Amino acid sequence: DVVMTQTPVSLPVSLGGQASISCRSSQSLVHSNGNTYLHWYLQKPGQSPQLLIYRVSNRFSGVPDRFSGSGSGTDFTLKISRVEPEDLGDYYCLQSTHFPNTFGAGTKLELK
Amino acid sequence: QVQLQQSGAELAKPGSSVKISCKASGYTFTSYYISWIKQTTGQGLEYIGYINTGSGGTNYNEKFKGKATLTVDKSSSTAFMQLSSLTPDDSAVYYCARAGSFDYWGQGVMVTVSS
Predict the structure, then answer these.
(1) B7 — phi, psi (to 5°)?
(2) Does B58 touch chain A (CB under 8 A)?
């Protein structure tokens, strides 16, 4: 299985500040069709994960442009600028290029 | 709007089975596969497998073969997951989600296995 290594585990931030989360895969996430199926989610307490970014850098409907995704191959980053209170929670990366799909272990974004 | 509505929490005894449902609305059910995911505090998010909502074909993560059985009822736009031979390690929250980019998720079902 593809191992997704997500760092850091915990990320203290100040409101209005910037956050960066890394996700590295044990093998390339470039599909044979040329697409890269790496996605990012936010899970707030007591809620289901919600899609933020799909296929590396595409913001899902309704996601503020404060969220941006980048990367290629095996190395990916989620950046959050101007952090707001509703951004706090657990962030996960997911690869759906390879079967079985696998998730990162999560990053807790919390107030400094 | 797209919604995946899951059934309610389950309390089950070791050795028994439970069947969880995931009812889709707001889109053409057979246009998207449904995936299932297990979440525990210790193991995080684990991918169980998916079902082709059109054909009923399935693909399981090796880890969950023999544990989970995925089925679908197209007439009611509902996907099901049965978990069998339950042990305390099966206690978790189980989600359904639209496969692919997992753009929509159900609210989750807490399954507690205890004697």
Answers:
(1) -75, 180
(2) no
Q: Which residues contact A74 (CB under 8 A, 6 or more apart)?
A: A24, A25, A26, A27, A28, A29
Q: Which residue of A has its CA nearest to B98?
A: A51
The answer, for B108 touching chain A at a CB cutoff of 8 Å, is yes
Q: What is the pLDDT of residues A38-63, one digit of tens each?
A: 999 999 999 999 999 999 999 999 99
Minimal CA separation from B36 to chain A, in Å: 11
CA triple A62-A66-A69, angle to 5 deg: 90
Close Cβ partners of A8 (under 8 Å, ≥ 6 residues apart): A21, A107
pLDDT tens-digit series, residues B23-80: 999 999 999 999 999 999 888 999 999 999 999 999 999 999 999 999 999 999 999 9
β A19-25/A75-80 pair status: antiparallel
Inform me whether the C-beta atom of residue B9 falls under 8 Å from chain A C-beta atoms: no
Residue A69 clears pLDDT 90, i.e. is over it: yes
The CA distance from A83 to the nearest CA of chain B, in Å, is 23
HSE-up of residue B17 (Cα within 13 Å, Cβ side): 10
